[in-house]
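Lecture 7 notes: from sequence to structure.
We start with the chain below.
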Amino acid sequence: MHSQASREALEKRIEELQRELRRTSRFEEINRVLLGISETVCRATALDEFFASIRSVLSSVIDTSNFSIALYDADQDSLSFPYCVVMTSVAGQIALAIERKRREKELEQSMAHLQSIFRAAPVGIGVTVDRVMVKASQRLCEITDYAREELIDRSARMLYLDDADFDHVGRVKYMQIRDHDTGTVETRWRRKDGAVIDVLLSSTPLDVRDLGKGVTFTALDITTRKQVEAERERLRVAIEQAAEIIVITDQADRAVSACPENGSSRPSHRWRRP
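Predicted structure tokens for the same chain:
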């Protein structure tokens, strides 16, 4: 029993001595490195030579395959890297990572720019895939009176008065896209509140070679314009059929138009344009 205990104590002591030896050897190695750096300071005549010598000395205690020296400027609170050695394969990976980050940042900026346009545009903007809406701007929601979640993943058919209008727009628009890469058509939509509005639709595919990738469209509410045009036409017809001559003058009382044309025997009335 005593012999067994003595042996265990001996083995434990040997392990302690080995650890101490390794620690001592490590300290000696570090001391040699520090001495080597000191000698380098005395021998080097240029910074590049000094940095390269430091790397060579440190390689005995650490892996210096990828090695950089950073200098801190306290006044500017900044770091500079006057010396940098990177393995070719690692350098390639770093370059790819930097390029990827740069592209990601550019993409983020582009997306932010597009989103700002999406929000600020006076026309409704959306994206459809096989005539099913996958994106809708706030303005499009305002025009249709639908919330975005009510439009997304729904067929555009929900906006048309009937199947005939829906089919007509699809036929005309996609024919124009096939021939001119873009299509524009006037149609009518029914809002969620039941009101019928006139709309000018313009559509452009994301990829003209593959319409399945989606189509971006803009929707302009032209209801007021159509109403003004209809009222103008109604007045024109009424004036032409009037029993009296109506003369429209400018502020200088110069006649700018008359209906019926001059030469009629009908009595005339003058109306000054503001």
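Points to note: The mean pLDDT is 77. The CA atoms of residues 47 and 139 lie 62 Å apart.
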